[in-house]
Amino acid sequence: MKRYRILPTSALALCAALALMGARAAPAAAEEGVTADTIRVGMFGPLTGPVSIYGYPINDGALAVYKATNDAGGINGRKIEVIQEDDACDPAKSRAAVKKLISRDHVFAIHGGSCSGATFATRDTMIDEEVPFMVMAATLDKISLPVNRYVYTTTPPGTSDGAEIVRFIRSMPNVKRVGIVRHVDEWANAKMESINASLEQPGLTVVANEVLDRNATDATTQVLHLKAAKPDVVIFVTYPAEGAVFLRDARKYDLAGPFIGTNGVTDLLDLAQRAGGLNAATDVYATAFVAGPVGSPAMAASTALLKKYYPDDRPQSVSFYGMSGAYAVVDALRRAGPNLTRKAFLDALESTKNLPAGPAFCKINITPENHQGCLAQQMWTLRDGKIVALGETWSPTNPTN
């Protein structure tokens, strides 16, 4: 039989006092994924597979923010513990990864998803399980629309991308005739929706609208149709590999630019290399949601942060795509207070106002009616073999970075 020691009243009082002091000294565990000294955050992305180039680089940027936060003392006495899962950019694997993070790893929140289709496949799971979700880098609008209490993003969605493209074109002199070459999938369609809506305003006319298949290795037909239509500018809504094929064939058949791409081809030096060299990327522009190209003063602090925690990573534009979401998560966790709950965290997210977004070209603003925290983008181009940032409108000189 177990024996129990009965303490005198004075000893009981002392124990009670010490317990009270301990409760004040360290934050109490609140709920799923939260302990007295940790906050467990799930992360998923394409760590393997054909688009793994967007996996570790993007995740590492966000992880650098979380590690820096921990090294600075954490959040209200707790350190962020991140658990990563691979989704290989596959919807079924994304759902499985998210279900594991929720049911087996018992995370408090999830910050992940770089492939739009695969990330969208996880949306209902987050909502059904009532787990806060910050999108990492996926841009499909319907991930964060319609607004739901549990889903947020700081990556400019496709409609924002398309609107910036047309705004930039309207600022260019003597542009009236617009040609388009595009994919037909959810990613491209979201961008085309806002491009088409913006082009409906007077002043611009679409003179050619060509479809380029995914994995295309030849764009001769599309280039020749565009050349015959004589556009003043050509918008290409493609992924990098197909965009390079298009630019290569445009140069081959003397189709003149300017050519305007989406933030899917932000890394213009990579695009030029794929297309056969810098000459193939002459007069090419692309939207970007980071503050400046790698190596520019605007990116110095974020680059130093990345190199501190991931010295073997090669800094590239995608390295910074996840940082803004991490800053939003850290800020909301801090403002949610020491008695951390999902409700307090979500309330804090929905009251985010003018938060600096690290390397992003925006300030983060989130309200109960709008969970797309960053909508501002700018344009980049190549000059003298270097990427330069132009701001939101066309300029022949004076790049901003």
Question: According to CATH, what is the class of the largest domain?
Answer: Alpha Beta
Strand order of the largest sheet: 7-6-8-9-10-13-14
Rg over alpha carbons = 24 Å
**How many domain units?**
2
Mean residue pLDDT: 90
User: Total number of helical segments?
Assistant: 14
From the helix content, strand content and strand pairing, which structural class follows? alpha/beta
Strand segment tally: 14
CATH superfamily grouping of the largest domain: Response regulator
- What is the helix/strand order? HEHEHEHHEHEHEHEHEHEHEHHHEEEE
> Ends: how far apart?
77 Å
User: Helix coverage percent of residues?
Assistant: 25-40%
CATH topology of the largest domain: Rossmann fold
Measured by DSSP, the beta-strand proportion falls in: 15-25%
Largest sheet: 7 strands, mixed
What does this structure look like?
- The chain is built from 14 helices and 14 strands.
- It has helices spanning 9-25, 56-71, 91-103, 116-120, 123-129, 141-144, 158-171, 186-199, 220-229, 240-252, 268-275, 300-309, 323-336, 342-349, and strands at residues 38-45, 79-86, 109-112, 133-135, 151-153, 177-182, 205-211, 233-237, 259-261, 284-288, 355-356, 363-364, 378-383, 386-391.
- The protein has 2 domains: 38-156 and 297-370, Rossmann fold (3-Layer(aba) Sandwich), CATH 3.40.50; 159-288 and 379-391, Rossmann fold (3-Layer(aba) Sandwich).
- It has a 7-stranded mixed sheet with strand order 7-6-8-9-10-13-14, sandwiched between helices.
- With 401 residues, the protein is of the alpha/beta class.
- It is elongated, with a radius of gyration of 24 Å.
